[in-house]
Amino acid sequence: MPIATVDPATGETIETFEPIAPDEIERRLTAADTTYARYRLTGFAERALLLGRAADLLEEDVPDIARTMTLEMGKPVTAARAEAAKCVKAMRWYAEHAEALLADERPAPADVADSGADRAAVHYRPLGVVLAVMPWNFPLWQVVRFAAPALMAGNVALLKHASNVPRTALYLQDLFARAGFPEGCFQTLLIGSGSVEALLRDRRVAAATLTGSEPAGRSVASIAGDEVKKTVLELGGSDPYLVLPSADVERAAATAVTARVQNNGQSCIAAKRFLVHADVYDAFRDRFVAGMRELTVGDPMNEDTDVGPLSTEQGRADLEELVEDALARGATALCGGQRPKEQTRGWYYSPTVLADITPEMRIHREEAFGPVATLYRVADLDEAVALANDTPFGLSSNVWTRDEGEIARCVRDLEAGGVFFNGMTASHPGLPFGGVKRSGYGRELAGHGIREFCNATTVWHGPETGG
After folding, report:
1. Torsion angles phi and psi, residue 124, rounded to 5
2. Helical segments of 185-303, H only
3. Class in CATH terms, 239-421
4. Which residues belong to CATH 3.40.309.10 in the chain?
5. Of the candidates 169, 204, 260, which has an alpha carbon nearest to the alpha carbon of residue 29?
6. Active-site residues: which are they?
7. Cβ atoms 313, 11 nearer than 8 A
8. Which end of the chain has fewer CB atoms within 10 angstroms, the N or the C?
9. Counting beta carbons within 10 angstroms of the beta carbon of residue 89, is it exposed (0 to 12), middle (13 to 18) or buried (19 or more)?
């Protein structure tokens, strides 16, 4: 894929970019390595001041960077502004909390004494240069939720962003530079995916984080594993959305619409499989389908647009194949199931609800990355949990119930990195985020996320060390 800004609402190429040359990659690696040697010695107060400045600048830039994101990947501009505002919030959260999150840990006195130490502690120290391989669907947020904790921990960052969001990638580099971070602290590398392996194998790169597809994650994990380097992976998801008899069906259906079509349906944590108890199935189905039909599909730059185009022509083609396979094998399209007739340009797809899904259909197993929901009728909680777990993914999950026993059962048995009750999955700076199974490993955000790229160093003092 060429590095280019292509408007998905029209298919028009706006700007193309040349990948940086090998000697420039080398220069930036050297700069990152050199800067890390100094930056790791800075204190939390200095880092917080820099990150706070970046947050202030981003807050001023929200209208402009939102339009850039919408132009490059097609999300409604209202959602793009919300994404940028969320990044401001995360930066300020880490600027405020990082020092406490990385404070030295003191083992229990009995354990210290039992180890033969006079005193002992655990120190959190940065790892070094961290390579971030990031996706296009949340082109600002995915980067900031890595960069804010990584920089506050004393690491430095190299960003290899998706090839269809180069303007956003370059904006991020400029943002941290304007905030006063030392040159080499955060650098964007406009390179193709073929250049990633050499970076991962370079001795100056200490670790890597990737958000993206399962194939991309497997590749990065394999290379990093061969080099014995730390990685954090956030990959695909096919999140279940359970609606049980005690649920507020009206609220559950209204929230389900947002949960499925957020970011034009192109979100790993979007609810994709709707597992509804037979007692409330008809009521939920009718409200959910009506809500999907009422969505406004159109120009993502318009304030009243709910669903814009998919980010790439290939992405729409992949989604169409999944839907066509399901329909050919007996699924029923309760709404949508095709391109909107009124949109003759760009890569639009109608909000779709498919029922009568069976395990033989590809969409039962594969992630639908677009505004397509699959609807299942289940007889009881046992069937709902079994079906929820019948996926190679395990990113998050949603459950609507007022029954405490069902809540406890879902927390215990759902195979996912999160269980959200009576609401939709969302990420927050103060809550750890990540998945299990083929949705990846490691955690982002909260204290768990900032410690992923730290060396938890045990410091032991024998009695002769003194007080």
Report:
1. -100, 115
2. 196-201, 214-227, 249-261, 281-293
3. alpha beta
4. 239-421
5. 204
6. 234, 268
7. yes
8. C
9. middle
The alpha carbons of the chain give a radius of gyration, in whole angstroms, of 23
Q: Give the chain's mean pLDDT.
A: 97
206 backbone dihedrals φ, ψ, rounded to 5°: -90, -30
Residues of the chain with CATH 3.40.605.10: 4-235+439-461
Distance CA 84, CA 449 (A): 20
The amino acid occupying position 410 is: C
Per-residue HEC secondary structure of the chain comes to CCCEEEECCCCEEEEECCCCCHHHHHHHHHHHHHHHHHHCCCCHHHHHHHHHHHHHHHHHHHHHHHHHHHHHHCCCHHHHHHHHHHHHHHHHHHHHHHHHHCCCECCCHHHHHHCCCCEEEEEEEECCEEEEECCCCCCCHHHHHHHHHHHHCCCEEEEECCCCCHHHHHHHHHHHHHCCCCCCCEEECCCCHHHHHHHHHCCCEEEEEEECCHHHHHHHHHHHHHHCCEEEEECCCCEEEEECCCCCHHHHHHHHHHHHHHHHHCCCCCEEEEEEECCCHHHHHHHHHHHHHCCCECCCCCCCCCECCCCCHHHHHHHHHHHHHHHHCCCEEEECCCCCCCCCCCCCCCCEEEECCCCCCHHHHCCCCCCEEEEEEECCHHHHHHHHHCCCEECCCEEECCCHHHHHHHHHHCCCCCCEECCCCCCCCCCCECCEECCEECCECHHHHHHHCEEEEEEEECHHHCC
- Taking the whole predicted model, whether its pTM rises above 0.85 is answered as yes
Burial grade of 71 (CB within 10 A; 0-12, 13-18, 19 or more): buried
Q: Which two tokens stand for residue 185?
A: 């602290």
Burial annotation 325-342 (CB, 10 A radius, 16+ → b, else e)? ebbeeebebbbbbebeee
pLDDT of 466 strictly over 80? no
Q: Which amino acid is at 321?
A: E
Q: What is the CATH code of the structural domain delimited by 4-235+439-461?
A: 3.40.605.10
Task: Decide if 220 contacts 208 (C-beta within 8 A).
Answer: yes
Could you report the per-residue pLDDT of 316-358, keeping only the tens digit for each?
999 999 999 999 999 999 999 999 998 889 999 999 999 999 9
Over the stretch 187-227, which tens digit does the pLDDT of each residue have? 999 999 999 999 999 999 999 999 999 999 999 999 999 99
Question: What are the structure tokens assigned to 403, written together?
Answer: 């029954």
Centroid of chain to Cα 229: 21
